[in-house]
């Protein structure tokens, strides 16, 4: 395939991971490479397409092309086109086992592939964690459910035929020059022996054309593979069920606080940290003010809090700020799994999807994650009130308190000593959520708006 056919462009714009909804895309191909198919039936190509219609966004689109349709693969068929009188059938790569297997094989074999346009250098290189046992892929399927990327689940078998743990490989759909924090942070945590994240298996690094870079090429992570926990529920579901049943959640909230502190302590031990300089504090306060303006633009009613929030931010600026370090960045109950026999497992260190990737890859304040999880317990109450008309405010308050207790006992700093600083971060997260809900789930907008009212009132008292 040389140019991007219309049917493929339409398909891309319909995918959950396509961010440019509501306008016509303008495509440019910045790179691509072929992966070997051991069966020789499929032509597997990973395309990197840039949409230049507005703010340029680069997408990773693995496809397979076949000369005849494959029985049982209709769900993955995107369309067909003619080339030199021959019809080519185009499939969504991750849903075609040939491509799914080739992606993981590149990681397990630490393979390297050349660009398909003759550009110099390596287009993609797989890296595998040395402790990964010798394993073979038995089957692959795409994870169902809402996702910003595309994850493939692999059933694995040991080379001696014995069972092996399944693997999940996240294929990043939106690509950026530089590190993807999900890979860097989860690899660093797993490498440091943390038991509250999945074990890492490996990742793929890629290179593509970028006239904005001095070398003419950009480099970034294309995919990340890790241990998969089958049949488990995320903490959002576990908490929701407990709240609806009026079940005490404080012990689990406390251990989640401890697990969060464990992640922060480990990250501070293995990756750079630095004391918060006046310019860091000023930049954070400026970003909070910018967030407020963004929220007002999306939800004009928030303007009523302008004066009160000015004093919240002014007061926060004079607080004693903790050191800066790498953090999760978008921490909420949906990012945590409850794994029976193992406990809480924390996932998805990609940071807030609405923040530029460069910002997400910098040191930040751990308070941001604490505030994120506090908001999430409030969301449980908001969701139960909406869906069942049931008030679980006390449940949420107790969970918030227990989470903070667990966090403080593990992290060693009493965050309650200067509650106004933590409140500033919580308000900031609720403003982010107001924008997120206004854009994605207007029916839930009242949840962050009620929290903003409450937090502003408390700050003023
Ligand atoms: N290691 C894992 N084990 C089990 N389920 C997982 C694992 N990693 C991710 N998941 C499931 O996939 C979902 C999406 O993963 P996530 O990392 O949040 O992807 P995305 O960044 O695309 O949203 C999670 O909410 C969880 O349900
Ligand atoms: O897609 P991500 O998981 O990276 O995060 C985005 O979507 C989340 C919703 O799925 C959103 O989280 C908000 O809603 C949750 C309940 O669905 C709640 O638990 C969170 O506390 C709340 O922030 C998240 O903000 C957004 O970045």
From TrEMBL:
Residues 222-412 form the Aminoglycoside phosphotransferase domain. Residues 11-96 form the Maltokinase N-terminal cap domain. Monomer. Keywords: ATP-binding, Carbohydrate metabolism, Glycogen biosynthesis, Glycogen metabolism, Kinase, Nucleotide-binding, Transferase. One of its GO terms (molecular function) is ATP binding. Belongs to the aminoglycoside phosphotransferase family. One of its GO terms (biological process) is glycogen biosynthetic process. It comes from Marisediminicola antarctica. It catalyses: D-maltose + ATP = alpha-maltose 1-phosphate + ADP + H(+). Its EC number is 2.7.1.175. Pathway: Glycan biosynthesis; glycogen biosynthesis. This is Maltokinase. The keyword Ribonucleoprotein does not apply. InterPro entries: Aminoglycoside_PTrfase, Kinase-like_dom_sf, Mak_N_cap. It is an enzyme of class 2 (transferase).
């Amino acid at each position: 395939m040389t140019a991007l056919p219309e049917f493929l462009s339409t398909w891309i714009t319909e995918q959950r991971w396509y961010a440019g909804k509501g306008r016509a895309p303008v495509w440019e191909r910045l790179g691509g490479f072929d992966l070997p198919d051991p069966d020789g039936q499929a032509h597997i190509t990973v395309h990197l397409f840039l949409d230049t219609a507005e703010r340029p966004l680069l997408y990773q689109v693995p496809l397979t092309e076949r000369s005849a349709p494959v029985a049982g693969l209709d769900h993955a068929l995107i369309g067909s086109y003619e080339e030199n009188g021959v019809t080519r059938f185009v499939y969504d790569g991750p849903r075609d086992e040939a491509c799914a297997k080739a992606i993981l094989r590149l990681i397990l074999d630490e393979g390297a592939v050349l660009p398909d346009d003759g550009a110099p250098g390596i287009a993609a290189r797989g890296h595998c964690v040395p402790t990964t046992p010798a394993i073979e892929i038995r089957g692959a399927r795409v994870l169902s459910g809402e996702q910003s990327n595309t994850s493939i689940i692999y059933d694995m078998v040991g080379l001696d035929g014995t069972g092996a743990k399944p693997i999940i490989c996240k294929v990043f759909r939106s690509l950026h020059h530089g590190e993807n924090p999900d890979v860097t942070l989860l690899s660093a945590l797993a490498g440091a022996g943390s038991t509250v994240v999945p074990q890492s298996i490996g990742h793929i690094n890629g290179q593509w054309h970028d006239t904005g870079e001095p070398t003419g090429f950009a480099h970034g992570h294309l995919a990340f593979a890790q241990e998969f926990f089958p049949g488990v529920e995320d903490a959002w579901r576990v908490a929701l069920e407990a709240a609806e049943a009026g079940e005490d959640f404080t012990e689990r909230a406390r251990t989640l606080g401890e697990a969060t502190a464990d992640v922060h302590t480990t990250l501070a031990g293995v990756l750079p940290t630095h004391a918060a300089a006046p310019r860091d504090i000023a930049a954070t306060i400026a970003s909070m003010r910018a967030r407020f303006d963004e929220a007002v633009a999306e939800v004009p009613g928030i303007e009523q809090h302008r004066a009160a929030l000015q004093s919240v931010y002014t007061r926060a600026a004079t607080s004693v700020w903790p050191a800066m370090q790498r953090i999760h960045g978008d921490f909420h109950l949906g990012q945590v799994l409850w794994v029976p026999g193992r406990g809480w497992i924390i996932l998805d260190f990609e940071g807030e999807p609405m923040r530029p990737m460069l910002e997400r890859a910098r040191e930040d304040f751990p308070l941001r994650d604490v505030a994120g999880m506090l908001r999430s317990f409030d969301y449980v109450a908001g969701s139960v009130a909406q869906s069942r008309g049931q008030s679980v405010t006390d449940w949420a308050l107790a969970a918030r308190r227990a989470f903070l207790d667990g966090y403080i006992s593990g992290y060693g700093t009493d965050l309650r000593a200067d509650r106004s600083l933590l409140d500033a971060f919580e308000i900031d997260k609720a403003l982010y959520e107001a924008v997120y809900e206004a854009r994605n789930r207007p029916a839930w907008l009242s949840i962050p708006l009620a929290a903003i009212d409450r937090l502003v009132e408390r700050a003023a008292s």
